[in-house]
Design brief:
7 helices, 10 strands, three-stranded antiparallel sheet, seven-stranded mixed sheet, alpha/beta, 253 residues, Rossmann fold, binds S-adenosylmethionine
Length: 253
């Protein structure tokens, strides 16, 4: 496994991840990592908040933490505008320890004996600066929010998400899912129709919204089988489509 930082067209960083010599994938679109993350995943947060559903989010995979930072920025913006909202749960899943460790180090929350990488801290700095400009927030607020969430255990950083083979006894459920794993070439186990149905059955609250950059047939079928209305939005920067699935029941369960 090896990786390389790259700057995308809107100035925000992404990582190119090489799993094996012929398996390489960029985490984001070359036209803008931050712009793409805002375009695809912010509607999850807005939909959950506007519907008044419990603010319980799952982020599959953490990567550089764009979706976690966007959530922190958006909620702080609401608070500063006199609409405080209380996050109940943010669970970030990431199979690469390096990515969890580097983010925690940058936040000052990891053991000092872990080596920090300048590339990572520069990347996180760049993302929060761009988000503070975008949402007109004071510097430092996003980091401070993430630290508070982590210290109160509202934000948990978990390992690889492994699709369940059988229904889970007491599943932790979410109202909003940022479904942002690598593609089916890298992560085939996360994209099969049966696997998705089995996993999402356990992961989703009755009222739930899921977004992903992909528009795979298996995903659309799985969402429809679970009662989601599937909105195929135009993809980011000329990509054909991306997916926003919304399931709205009467009670929030
Ligand atoms: C497209 S990138 C995510 C980008 C990320 N959301 C961000 O904001 O930068 C996909 C991520 O999923 C992680 N991943 C792959 N398989 C996973 C699994 N089974 N569970 C959790 N994370 C996984 C990869 O290591 C990678 O960091």
């Amino acid at each position: 496994m090896s990786y390389q930082f790259m700057t995308t067209a809107d100035g925000s960083p992404t990582l190119e991840w090489q799993q094996s010599p012929d398996l390489v994938e960029k985490m984001h679109h070359s036209q803008g990592a931050l712009s793409e993350s805002l375009y695809i995943y912010l509607p999850v947060i807005q939909t959950v908040a506007e519907a008044g559903w419990p603010l319980k989010f799952m982020s599959l995979g953490l990567g550089l933490g764009y979706n976690e930072m966007i959530l922190a920025a958006w909620l702080k913006k609401q608070e500063l505008q006199g609409r405080p909202l209380s996050l109940q749960r943010l669970h970030s899943f990431e199979s690469q320890d390096l990515l969890k460790d580097q983010l925690l180090l940058w936040l000052g929350l990891a053991p000092a004996n872990l080596p920090a990488s300048e590339g990572f801290s520069q990347a996180y700095d760049c993302i929060v600066q761009a988000l503070c400009r975008h949402f007109q927030l004071p510097a430092g607020l996003i980091q401070q929010t993430l630290v508070e969430w982590r210290q109160s255990d509202i934000w948990q950083l978990k390992g690889a998400y492994l699709p369940s083979q059988e229904p889970v006894a007491e599943p932790e459920r979410y109202s909003g899912l940022f479904y942002d794993a690598f593609s089916s070439k890298m992560n085939p186990e996360l994209w099969s129709e049966e696997g998705l149905v089995q996993s999402l059955q356990d992961l989703c609250e009755p009222n739930c919204v899921l977004a992903t950059y992909a528009a795979k047939g298996s995903l659309k079928r799985a969402l429809r089988r679970l009662g989601f209305a599937v909105d195929l939005r135009p993809g980011f920067a000329g990509k054909r489509q991306c997916t926003l699935g919304i399931r709205s029941c009467q009670s929030s369960g």
